[in-house]
Prior knowledge:
By secondary structure, the protein is of the alpha+beta class. It has eleven helices and ten strands.
Amino acid sequence: xxxxxxxxxxxxxxxxxxxxxxERWTTVRWVCDLxxxxxxxxxxxxxxxxxxxxxxxxxxxxxxxxxxxLLVLQEQGVIERVRGAGTFVVAPSILLHGIDESxxxxxxxxxxxxxxxxxxxxxxxxxxxxxxADMLQIAAGDDVVILETFTHLDGFPLSMRTAFMPASRxxxxxxxxxxxxxxxxxxxxxxxxxxxxxxTQLWIGSSTANRLLADALDIQPGNALxxxxxxxxxxxxxxxxxxxxxxxxxxxxxxTVMRAAPTEERLGGPPxxxxxxxxxxxxxxxxxxxxAGGNQ
Length: 296
């Protein structure tokens, strides 16, 4: 749940009309959710909300419902109501990032002009723990390059990422200053390996910001984070990177297309023998990684 979503639930509980029937409360809730989604998508031109009368017509609800919704959104800090001027969106718009291809957020955003900047915070060489070794399919104790970066969007912190890469393939990142590390890892790997990148395995979760992450991302401790852990592989399936990323949940939304299941699955469930099975070399350590990702 995003930071706005958390506030939304608290605000709705606080402003729930005492003694009112469940039907009206349900209406307040879904209108609030829908209006918030439209606000975050930048639906309203120039960040200005229509009048109460226009909102009543738009959602086909009563004035009392609209006023309750606007009160909740104002408390969340999403909108600001100025007497005599109108209601304005003050929350930043959500950045939509497709995850159906092996590419980084910065690559997608900067395809339309430089808005995302990746800054290197730290790079170091360290022996791989057993967990990292399992993720990278190397021996425990082998050296890995640890690279910590921050992504800024329009000058403001968006996310931080810690990546672990086998030094046997990427040790030159420690010494070769000609390699620009302030780029998407996909661009770095393509340059170093002189070959296209393969698949990316991605896990998505959520957590709340501790004081270290809150300070780094310029948010309050306890705010919601969108967490991703991933393994980037080369074209033969060999892992190139295992990384852990934390992004501001109020700024980022992942998007993909869920394909229709094969007919036999829709009618009779998963094909025999596939439920619960792993594909060797692709899901190793999945349960451990999910646990780790959820505790970051």
